[in-house]
Design a protein that fits this description.
3 copies of one chain form a homotrimer. Chain A has 2 helices and 6 strands, in the order βαβββαββ. Chain A is α/β, with parallel strands linked by helices. Chain A has a single domain, classed as Macrophage Migration Inhibitory Factor.
């Protein structure tokens, strides 16, 4: 963690560079610092994955609406200030890339941050150690 | 919210019009009324996204089983009666479209409704204001 | 339930047989037994779906990192021992298939097990009865 998954309607695909958005959001997470100036999210645990939905329905369906849902899952235990600051920074990052899209399209974007409450957590691989 | 995501096995794709299902489920949500006759879910926040899984395994794998998982995330604070009624209405909607599929195929369908407990919630775009 | 969804970066697709992984993980779940020797997870409710993400960003983006996220949702009420044993068995199963991938690639894999807390749960279809 943090683990950010983006679910979006396929009609958004042609209007924005989604890979660029993923990178910008990951960089935003990596820049978050806590009260002691320490990185909030570990580099090796930071990832963003984005999925266009081939089938969808939005609102009343009377126009070619688009929708983007960003769900960030983080570990529990961080302060409200840190969580709010991270949320706001991600929204600002998304706004910078989506503002041109909002001009000519009817699109909604929601970011929700969840604290994971998993009953089991296992890890494998060589990515985390690379950054420690 | 409400935010409905459908994850299903790719072998279902040829057996049902998934875009039609998305629209029917969205319409079902828009028709939900509370005790005061008010729309339960805001039009601008209603969306359904459906994802066929290219890789999957179901049950014991001894036949070409299919599976459809519908996960609806709603805001917290609604009455049990409203939540149950919305759940039942969505199941009825799915049944109407899937009954012909169940006749000739071994398919399971599960709907689960979760109340979001997000620690941050941010919105952008021009979709919500359109319906207010 | 159990319901296992795998979200992974598209660069993993060529390095592992993801359908084989799905099947191996499903078989692992089906083999879990409780203290009384009874199957922990019902056959008709066991399913694994895997989704490659066409857009993604991992860690600092300075190399072709891969990431695999396994999220298992189970019903509430099982003992800690059973949940830990299931988690460990799934990690062992993933390790067996991913060890060759880890040798030549920078890849992280995380498994998290969540207990569902749905406010509504509905089922349709002919899959569950088949195994009862």
């Amino acid at each position: 963690m943090p683990h950010l998954v983006i679910f979006y309607t396929l009609n958004i695909e042609a209007k924005i560079d989604m890979s660029e958005l993923c990178r910008a959001l990951a960089d935003t997470m990596l820049k978050q610092l806590d009260e002691a100036g320490k990185q909030v999210f570990p580099t090796g645990g930071t990832r963003v994955l984005a999925y266009p939905a081939p089938h969808y329905a939005v609102a009343d369906g009377k126009a070619d609406y688009g929708f983007v849902y960003l769900n960030l899952r983080i570990g529990a235990g961080r302060s409200d200030a840190i969580k709010n600051e991270a949320g706001r920074a991600l929204i600002d990052c998304a706004r910078a890339l989506f503002d041109p899209v909002f001009k000519d399209n009817l699109v909604g974007l929601t970011l929700q941050v969840d604290e994971g409450a998993q009953v089991f957590d296992g890890k494998l691989g060589n990515l985390h150690p690379l950054f420690q």
